[in-house]
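From the shared-data thread, chain only:
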Amino acid sequence: MRLLLVEDDELFVHALSTYLVAQRYAVDVATDGESGWSYIQATTYDLVVLDVNLPKLNGFQLCQRIRQAGYHQPILLLTAKDDSADKVTGLDAGADDYVVKPCTVEELSARIRALLRRQQLPAAPVLEWSGLRLDPDACNVTYGGREVLLTSKEYSLLELFLRYPQRVFSSSSILERLWAFEESPGEEAVRALMKRLRQKLRAAGTPDLIETLYGQGYRLKPLEEDSAGDRPALASASDLDPAPTPAPDSNSNRRDPREAALEAWEQFREPMLEQLTYLDQAVAMLQRESLSPARRDLAEQAAHKLAGALGMFGFPQGSRLARAIEQHLQATDAPIAAAPLSSLVAQLQEELSSPPQLSGFLAGLSPSALSDSQSPLALLIMHETKAFVAQVQTEGASCDIEAEGVTSVAAARAAIARRVPDAVLLSLTLVNALPGGLALLQDLTAQFPTLPILVIANSDNLGDRLELLCRSRCQFVPKDVPLGTLLMTVRDVVESHQLAGMRILVVDDDPMVLTALRQMLSPWQVHLFTLEDSSQFWETLSAIAPDLLILDVEMPQMNGVQICQIVRSDHTWNRLPIIFLTGHQDMATVQQLLSVGADDCLTKPFSESELLFRLCNRLSRTRLSPNQLRLRLSHKSA
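Structure, as tokens:
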């Protein structure tokens, strides 16, 4: 569903739109009343959220203008005034509901869902069509009792068809409902999305549910025609394009992650500089020998926050300096020396006066890992037998796998420079035989943290495996596995390394860290849910049902260690993967976190590649596909 948010508070807009996108809505944002009116005239929205105090045209006036134009969908008004007169004015202007700020994004999202439910015709909560079941509350799709794994866009497209089974949707109408204006892809994005959805439904065993009406669009096949059995085959028609007009590259409008990250730094520059004032005050009071324990604690907390966040905003040296300041303030064996502390604070101020380094999550991303890729799965094979490579290429073409074979390290590096593959398949014999083979594995792991690497094990020698694992995070497959099973395994592993569609809950009270995580993960289409108030954890966990949990160690109300202990003691959630974020690098802290049930620990500041590697590593271990199970059983019987 498509929503319009008209609000001039940038921080509130960022938080709410991020949350709503994670809830599978397409969200457009306008920052003044006139812009909001332009959006309303340009497209149709399922719901509009209006702030009352808007520049150029206030929320009451805009609401009246929208209603006079014949718009009948829900309108939700936001205001900072808890005044009954304002509420009456807003409702009289045509609003359906009224929310007083400050409010949580969870509450606002619940109000939105309630308004949207009122607009829908009475229907079963679960949408069903020819044995296919879509549960909007759980956000999952099943067929014959087995889950069908879909990306966010694929799920939204299927939900659109199931909610309006009699309607024909053109490419342009699908674009309007599933993508926000700022994304602006072309109609080829709809065709690619439709192709992927059909492939996944067919792979799950469903009948051909979606048909193409040439020149008109797409719709669900009527059930009575499916059951009659006399409908002519539409295999060729289903692959026709409803509007085969050329369109610009959909990736050309993808937002530059560097630009987004620099905006994040500008957003938090002032809060970070405010932390510096605590350090300045501590130095001044220390020089006057009047530093109180309370002021010392405030300065230590400020240094701790800066140490954990600066590196992720492009200031790695700033994080190191802040860490050194924190250690000075923590020292209890001797009085704090004013001169070294003053020097460190001065260096930190000088560091922050320069622009951030374009590193960490500002670095370029692997485009092949993005879930919106329209190309066949690209497989790079490094194998000594040309006949094996040719066989993989022939059979892979029939299941949408495009394989390229190389026999040297130089050729492999050149192929990757031309195009980053979706997966790499290596022969253990060739890797060990070639000079630089192990170095290639090490470089791939470091440069492409989400790239799956599969190694054909020519023997069960543990020493050979251990040597590879010391340099990379490869996965081994048996040498005698059937080719069809091998190709299915490649697809399984690629899918298990894709972060798109994953639901991750982050509990951290530092908004700077949360923003950095959003910037790192947003290009990978992760559904990221953030919670700053740890006291609301249990309700949030049940409502979101995440695939992975990220916890900060030090938080008010309830710290991360306590939350981890609660999760591990619960039968429903005790297997949920948990990664800790900590600003402490000592072994005692790491051991404590592992002892309470942590699966992994990330030390702040961390880089984008390190975060992606840890997430892929942890999430891939929780997914065991039917094909992997067959592999395990066949290997056991052999």
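The first strand starts at residue 2 and ends at 6.
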